[in-house]
Amino acid sequence: MGSSSKLFQYFWTLVEQLPSLLTLVGCLIFALTRWKRYPKVSLIVAAGLGLLLIHAVAFLIIYEVVPPLFINSAESFQNTEPMRRTISLVLGILYNVGHAVAFLLLLVAVFMQRRPGGSNEPQPG
Q1: Pair 46, 28: CB distance under 8 Å
Q2: CA atoms of 125 and 104, how far apart (whole Å)
Q3: What whole-number distance in Å separates Cα of residue 21 and Cα of residue 41?
Q4: What is the dihedral of CA 3, 69, 17, 10, to 10 degrees?
Q5: What is the pLDDT of residues 40-97, one digit of tens each?
Q6: Residues 6 or more apart from 12 whose CB is under 8 A from it?
Q7: pTM of the full predicted structure?
Q8: 27, 51 in Cβ contact below 8 A?
Q9: Which of 109, 111, 114, 94 lies closest to 48 in space, CA to CA?
């Protein structure tokens, strides 16, 4: 497979994720516009959304680059199927741990600075 063909494949993989990436960027911008009113919450939300954005782009690249690197180096062995399964398992675990950490940050932001009794507006001073 040629270099330009690989680049074209990476491009289309990115285009497939474009709606999600644009949504993350939009939410990040919204969180940053609320910075003055809710600085701590905005910081945690921005961190979670930023992590999700980096995670999405990183794993687009990782899933395209890492498996072929290991599988091509192991083609001298007769059976590469166990290696394929192991690579898939490890990448799946890393993907889901990264996702869980990002969503944990968002969950923390949802419940931080809550006051009992209904009024969650910031107190003056």
Answers
A1: yes
A2: 30
A3: 21
A4: 0
A5: 999 999 999 999 999 998 998 898 888 888 877 766 666 778 888 999 999 999 999 9
A6: none
A7: 0.78
A8: no
A9: 109
Instruction: Give burial (CB, 10 Å; 0-12/13-18/19+) of 98.
Output: middle
Q: What is the number of alpha carbons within 13 Å of residue 54 lying toward its C-beta?
A: 9
In tens, the pLDDT along 15-48 reads 898 999 999 999 999 999 999 999 999 999 999 9
Q: 99, 98, 121, 109: which is closest to 45 by C-alpha? A: 109
- φ/ψ bin of 22: left (φ > 0), alpha (ψ from -120 to 50), beta (otherwise): alpha
